[in-house]
Amino acid sequence: MFVEPFTWGLWVVTGAILMYTTFTVWFLEHQSNPEFSGPWKNQISTALWFTFSSLFFAHREKINRNDTRLVILVWLFVVMILASSYTASLSSMLTVQQLRPNVADIEWLKNHNLKIGCQYKFICEYVENVLNFKSDNIVKISYDYMYPEEFKSKYIAAAFLELPYAKVFLNKYCNEFTGTMASTKYGGFGFAFQKGSPIAGDFSKAILQLSENGDLKSLEDEWLTPSHECSTNKTSNKPNSLSIKSFGFLYLLSFSTSTICLLLSLIRWRDPCNESIWQKVVRLVRYFHIKNRGSPPTPADISSTNEGISDANESPSRLDFISNSNSPESHPPLPASIN
Fold it and tell me: Where is the sequence biased in composition, kind Polar residues (predicted)?
């Protein structure tokens, strides 16, 4: 009973999303959060306990990373929708009753002096003369579409219809009304022809052939069989279990959020940098802004510029080691030789 609100496929997908969220939280937090670090057993148990306790909004572990908070936020939203849907579906299965008529039988109608509706004259006469209803309790209905209005206004408690018309009416209003099979039946419709008509025998023979071949039964099943919705309401008082289609978007949202956060974490791990995401975005915007103003410097230009700056910074130290005595002006003039 307690697993019927969800289909087995939905239970399996929910468990898979739960484990994937557990892995994502552990991967994002185990390096920087002391509560998710330590021996492997402690890490796994802490991640599992955190995710399972989030089903009841009872988690208490601290979260350090913003991307982990985003994953948990989406997961809690999914959990809230799942819990509400499960509670509503289970309540429906425990409380919803099958639609049943509030009229027991014909004698109950007569004993309670309730009004009934009928449409054609021969039916009303049959109800009055054969079933012994009081004429004051018989309400003549002009058209079929008037029956729902009379029922909703509680002007009539029941209606007597011919079997084909009763099937059509119940097929159209199966969620609002129900019927009981009458104990009195007739042979069917009668076809009248002029006395001595040559087509009377052929007509009767054709109807007999249709009845024996089963064509009349197939036509009745095709035109008067209740729709799938009506037959389901008739045979079962349990609402349908919720399937994956009901929560496909939520699961896709949770899976996508966890995957994106995982990928971003892997990128930061492979390319460690002190820059935050906002600083990288600003640097990217500046790059495109410079590109619009002119061609950006090439890597070779940047390298040569850096070397020039480095040489300029190092040149004073090199000049400091040059002695003044080595300059030409510091040497005394040599004496001229006399031949």
Answer: 301-329
